[in-house]
Every structure is written in C-alpha cells, then in structure tokens.
Amino acid sequence: MKKLIAPSILSADFTKLEEEVRAVQRSGADWIHVDVMDGHFVPNISIGTPIVKSLKNLNPPMMDIHLMIDSPEKFVSAFIEAGKPFVKVITVQVEACRLLYSTVTAIKSYGVMAGVALSPGTPISSIEEILPYVDLILIMTVEPGFAEQKFINSMIPKIKRLRCETNNSAYKPLIEVDGGIKLDNIREVAQAGADVFVSGSGIFKTEDYALTIQTMRKEIESK
Ligand code: DX5
Ligand code: ZN
C-alpha cells in the first residue's frame, strides 16, 4: 500500500487557512489531519465542526479527523456531517471512549474509516478486542494536546510490535503515527512499520512545503 502523508493543520497559519490547505494539497499531501481538542481530555482547545465545514468548501484532500475529546461518540455524526464527503477517517482516543465498540461501529456505518488512537502510556493490548473492527490504529508519539512536542523515541518499539502483531493477524488496519514527526526521523518511523505519517510543525514550519513533503516521501520510500 502507498504510504500516506497527512499534514496537521493545527500548525498552519490560521489567518490564511485556505492558502495553507491549498499549498499542502499542491505539494502532494494525501490527507489533511484535523486535530480536535476539548480542554477536558487534553489541556488545550483547538478547532471544531465550523472549521471542518469551511474546509470542505475548498475541495480539500480527504480529512483525517483526530478527536482528542471526552465522550467522542457524542460528536461523531456532527463531524461526519460537517465534512461530508471529505471525511476519510474519524479517530477516537481509546482512553476517552467508554463505548468503543459502538463508537467504531457507528463511524463505519457512515462509510467512514474508524480509527483508534493510543496515547504513549496506553498499551497495545488495550485494543486487542476491537482489532477486528478498526480500519486504522494511531500510535501517538507525543502526549496528545499540543503541536511541536518532541518525538518519544520509546514509541519506535511500540510501532514495531504493532506492525508485527498486525502482520501475524487476519486483520490489517493501517498504522498511523502522530507527534514530532519530521524530516530527520520519518525514515526510522517508516522502518518501524507505519503506513500514515502525520506531521504538523514538521511541514508547516518549513519554508517550502513541496520540498519537505517530497523529501519526506523519499525518506519513507527509501526505507
Ligand atoms: C498532538 C496532535 C498532533 C500534532 C502534530 O496532540 O494530535 O497531530 O498537532 O504536530 P507536530 O507534528 O508538530 O508534533
Ligand atoms: Zn493528531
């Protein structure tokens, strides 16, 4: 499968969001990663359905919506509705979702991919029972809540273990990584087995998005 690059718009310049989205789209972004934070599950507040609704008017790349909010099941339909038909994935944090099975099933009932995200301290074993039902597993490589944090190196063995487990399993969810991914570590993360690479500041804080994304792609493919 083609490896995918998903710039996180949390690091974009919000005074010119349209330009920023179009720029990463032209530069070869596969998905747009949308970080939703509620000030409860994480100590930060970011963006919600109005921004998703505006983004869809730009004919954007497909959106990968990462819900870092408590009780995400309450908001799944609102985000899907807001971004229709550009919502590719809705990912919920397993730590924030008490009804994981019904939430994942609800996401899929809209024809959207269902993702589950694991914070750095959450073990892979916590998603064992949901594995047959998910389309994507997001390994957080920083504590969720903020952009521009340092990649946690001990997440590399975690990604490798998950890759190994899915290789040996009948279920083949995509493995996504998110947090502190930059040009200087993306190759190692690719070697560990990731399929989808989220990068916020690693793309939006560089001068030339096209050059950054192309170089990231080379790094991923030369693994
Ligand atoms: C962290 C978010 C990430 C983050 C990525 O809570 O889920 O998507 O914004 O930003 P960078 O790549 O700067 O760590
Ligand atoms: Zn994210």
Give the helix tally: 8
Q: Which sequence of SSEs, written as H and E, runs from N to C? A: EHEHEHEHEEHEHEHH
Contiguous low-pLDDT stretches (5 residues minimum) are none
Radius of gyration: 16 Å
* CATH superfamily placement: Aldolase class I
What is the number of independent domains? 1
Mean pLDDT: 97
Q: What is the level-2 CATH architecture name?
A: Alpha-Beta Barrel
Query: Which word captures the global form?
Result: globular
- The overall strand count is 8
Largest sheet: 8 strands, parallel
Q: Classify the secondary structure makeup into a structural class.
A: alpha/beta
Residues in β-strands, percent: 15-25%
CATH topology: TIM Barrel
Helix content: 25-40%
Q: What compounds are bound to the protein?
A: D-xylitol-5-phosphate, zinc ion
Strand order of the largest sheet: 1-8-7-6-5-4-3-2
Question: How would you summarize the topology of this molecule?
Answer:
Blueprint: E1 4-7, H1 17-26, E2 31-37, H2 49-56, E3 62-68, H3 76-83, E4 87-93, H4 100-109, E5 113-118, E6 136-140, H5 155-167, E7 174-178, H6 186-192, E8 196-199, H7 201-204, H8 209-221
Parallel strand pairs: 1-8, 2-3, 3-4, 4-5, 5-6, 6-7, 7-8
Bound molecules: D-xylitol-5-phosphate (DX5) and zinc ion.
